[in-house]
Amino acid sequence: MSTKKALKWVGFWMALAIVFNIGILLIEGPAKASQFLGGYVIELSLSVDNLFLFLILFSSFGIPPAYQRRVLNYGIFGAIVLRLIFIVLGITLVNKIHFILYIFGVILIISGCKMMFGHEKPVDHKENKVLKIMGKFLPMTDKMHEEKFFIVENGKKYATPLLAILVLIESSDILFAIDSIPAIFSISTDPFIVYTSNIFAILGLRSLYFVLGALQERFKYVKYGVALILVFTGVKLGILFFELEIPILYSLLTIFTILIASVIFSVFKSKSEDKKKKEIELKRVDL
């Protein structure tokens, strides 16, 4: 998908989410509409970091862009199903054990701090434990076979690297849900609001992936904004223990401000780095 076409689709899915939000405003009132908007923005902003992981996975396995769309389609469908399961389980836990919200808050703060201050180490995704377990039950080929997940050679069934990528994407989404769903619980525990805000954010991920793929160098510092959002939502959940609550309007303003500021910083920082690289290259040429 070209960047121009991907941007149009991102705009379409965002417009659809806004229309749905207006519907909630008219039917359920401003409180529920604000909760949906908050959940949608949190999920969308946290998804950015997960999409960068997808870029790394496709690159490490050498998956051509032509075959990436099929994996993303299956991945999005799987995410929709997994989120429903996690949200139902999460809300059931919150209703039965209210104290778990404070635990979610601590998890989010720790995750945010790790993302902000942790040093990323090179990871060989081909040595992933999930793939090793999968390999014990299903042999895997080293070569791509177009868009096929399975092939049969000499009467024996083999998985292709495309299936390996799909398995890794689905398993990473499980880990991602551990952060994203508790973060939305800081805004609302209404099953309808939590699930629909998740779904509308997920539906636009495929298009957003292709935008980030083309502009990843420009947005590589957005992860620090995502980390701050995680910390903020963790604090928002944690202070409930002291019977303190941040109003939804202030929460939305804080999340929007962090997200927009991180995007602006990332763009300017990337441009500054590009300028320095060009100056260094010019000096080398002169020498």
Short descriptors:
mainly alpha; two-stranded antiparallel ribbon; Integral_membrane_TerC; 10 helices; about 290 residues
What is the ordering of alpha helices and beta strands?
HHHHHEEHHHHH
Determine the fraction of residues in helical runs and give it as a percent range. Answer: over 70%
Low-confidence stretches: none
Helix run count: 10
Arrangement of strands in the largest sheet: 1-2
Instruction: Give the end-to-end Cα distance, rounded to a whole number of Å.
Output: 42 Å
Mean pLDDT: 80
- CA radius of gyration is 21 Å
Which percent range describes the beta-strand content?
A: under 5%
- Strand tally: 2
Determine the structural class based on helices, strands and strand pairing: mainly alpha
Q: How many separate structural domains?
A: 1
Q: Identify the overall geometry.
A: globular
Q: Mind describing the biggest β-sheet? A: 2 strands, antiparallel
Mind explaining what this structure looks like?
- With 287 residues, the protein is mainly α.
- The chain has one domain (3-122, 182-286).
- The protein is built from 10 helices and 2 strands.
- Strands 1-2 form a two-stranded antiparallel sheet.
- Strand 1 and strand 2 form a beta hairpin.
- Helix 1 packs across helix 8, helix 4 (100-117) crosses helix 6 (161-185) and helix 4 (100-117) runs antiparallel to helix 9 (222-238).
- The N and C termini lie far apart (42 Å).
